[in-house]
Write a structure and sequence with these properties.
CATH architecture of the largest domain: 3-Layer(aba) Sandwich
Largest sheet: 5 strands, parallel
Structural class: alpha/beta
Distance between the termini: 26 Å
Radius of gyration: 19 Å
Number of domains: 2
Number of strands: 9
Strand order of the largest sheet: 1-3-2-4-5
CATH class of the largest domain: Alpha Beta
CATH superfamily of the largest domain: Creatininase
CATH topology of the largest domain: Rossmann fold
Helix content: 25-40%
Order of helices and strands: EHEHEHEHEHHEEEEHH
Shape: globular
Strand content: 5-15%
């Protein structure tokens, strides 16, 4: 089991090996995930991933892995979703400086290894810049982990046939929430979303070699209504979600073991 940073007393924290201990910082978001999934989808996934990483480590005999889980950061950079009801976003500079200040505090107490667990793709660009700046300015080692192994064959196998655009708020993310608490998902309200402005393009896509910073309004239903999600959540199940969470955690274990040995 991974210990929670917040559960330790000051006396216990003073005795933690700061040189070797990895601080796992899960980065969530509070934003729309369609009609069917909760606003806190990314936070829920972040909490579940911490638990699954702990299970995956224990399964490999790593019962005393040197890692502390920081509380989930519940709001992130969600500019692309801000026009959909319920979404909350920080400004890029606010988000950067919040994470920077947290990192400085941890470094001040002697921690050398931080691992940012990115559970919302919109947070990734800020974290990538932050990682380099922290390494350059403070001489610490800030690593970046992805919370979803969405390109893994076992994960891709969970996606329903014909569901080609699945990503934000789609079948995979909805399934992950269902694996935690099915009552939070209103699958009967789900609608599929496709990037209508891009779907017939050969080169310009919402992501890839030629792209533009997409916004939720780019993803629409068949009748043209902005829906803000990618793919069709209708096929989501808790069983699929468990498979995605387990696989996503397992693929991080080799990297975490190498982070433990890192002496940069």
């Amino acid at each position: 089991m991974i210990r929670n940073y917040r559960d330790l007393t000051r006396w216990e924290m003073e005795r933690v090996d700061k040189e070797e201990t990895i601080i796992l910082i899960p980065l969530g978001a509070l934003e729309q995930h369609g009609n069917q999934a909760p606003l806190g989808t990314d936070d829920i996934i972040a909490e579940a991933m911490v638990e699954e990483i702990g299970k995956a480590l224990e399964a490999e005999g790593e019962t005393d892995f040197p890692m502390l889980a920081f509380p989930v950061i519940p709001v992130g950079l969600s500019t692309e979703h801000k026009n959909f009801c319920g979404s909350v976003t920080l400004r890029p500079d606010t988000y950067y400086h919040m994470l920077y200040d947290i990192s400085v505090s941890l470094a001040h107490h002697g921690f050398k290894k931080l691992a940012f667990l990115v559970c919302h793709g919109g947070n990734a660009p800020i974290v990538q810049v932050l990682s380099r700046e922290l390494r350059s300015e403070l001489g610490i080692s800030p690593f970046i982990l992805s919370s979803g192994a969405f390109g893994h064959p076992d994960v891709l196998a969970t996606v329903s046939e014909g569901n080609i655009w699945d990503f934000h708020g789609g079948e995979m993310e909805t399934s992950m929430v269902m694996a935690v608490d099915e009552s939070l998902v209103k699958l009967e309200l789900s609608e599929a979303g496709i990037p209508t402005a891009f779907e017939h393009n050969e080169a310009l896509k919402p992501y890839g070699n030629v792209s533009i910073g997409w916004v939720s309004e780019d993803w629409r239903t068949k009748d043209g209504k902005p829906i803000g999600i990618g793919g069709d959540p209708a096929g989501a199940t808790a069983e699929k979600g468990r498979k995605i969470l387990e696989t996503s955690a397992k693929v991080l274990i080799p990297g975490l073991k190498e982070i433990r040995k890192w002496k940069g």
